[in-house]
Amino acid sequence: MRQTPKSKGGVSDCKLVILESFDHQTVLFAFGSNLRIMVQINYIEHGGAKWTVEIAEGISLMEGALKYRIPGIDGDCGGACACATCHVYVDPDWFDRLPAMNELERGMLKFASETRQYSRLACQIKAAPALNGLTVTIPQSQY
Ligand code: FES
């Protein structure tokens, strides 16, 4: 029996689902699955407005902010670590759980305004299950 995909249950976003019956057991085959783990990220605007959104694992926090049109993160260089328009302050409780900053990011942060101890570039932080619930604040200078 062949079906077109439905947007219910654990097979959403599959391009093709095939149900076959073998010896009275039904087996589900899913091809072209786009299933991705979603990670909850909290963005806090300078004025205090809080955005809690879900972005897919592997997507950067800059890309996530653009997707949801969160003000204050422009991402002018498209994530090439060349503009610092994605500068954020990471919640101190989360800072040490992030992947280490590389020299390129460290250098670009020198061009950002109002940097602090917990500054990072959102384009260099990829959503991952270990970061579920991460909170970042957007600096005043980016408004
Ligand atoms: S988007 Fe340009 S440095 Fe992050």
What does this protein look like?
The chain is an alpha+beta fold. It has two domains: 2-31, no CATH class; 38-142, Beta-grasp domain (Ubiquitin-like (UB roll)), CATH 3.10.20. Helix content is 13%, strand content 29%. It has a five-stranded mixed β-sheet with strand order 5-4-8-6-7. Strand 2 (16-22) and strand 3 (25-31) form a beta hairpin. The structure holds FE2/S2 (inorganic) cluster. Residues 62, 75-77, 79, 81-86, 108, 121, 123 line the site of FE2/S2 (inorganic) cluster. FE2/S2 (inorganic) cluster binds next to loops.
Helix content: 10-25%
* CATH homologous superfamily designation of the largest domain: Beta-grasp domain
Average pLDDT over all residues: 85
DSSP strand content:
25-35%
What distance lies between the first and last C-alpha atoms, to the nearest angstrom? 55 Å
**Ions, cofactors, ligands: which are bound?**
FE2/S2 (inorganic) cluster
Which residues sit in consecutive blocks of at least 5 with pLDDT less than 50? 1-12
Strand order of the largest sheet: 5-4-8-6-7
CATH class type of the largest domain: Alpha Beta
Number of strands: 8
CATH architecture label name of the largest domain: Roll
The run of helices and strands is: EEEEEHEHHEE
Shape: globular
Characterize the main sheet: 5 strands, mixed
Supply the number of structural domains: 2
What brief labels describe this structure?
disordered N terminus, three-stranded antiparallel sheet, five-stranded mixed sheet, 3 helices, 2 domains, about 140 residues, about 15% helix, alpha+beta, Ubiquitin-like (UB roll), globular, binds FE2/S2 (inorganic) cluster
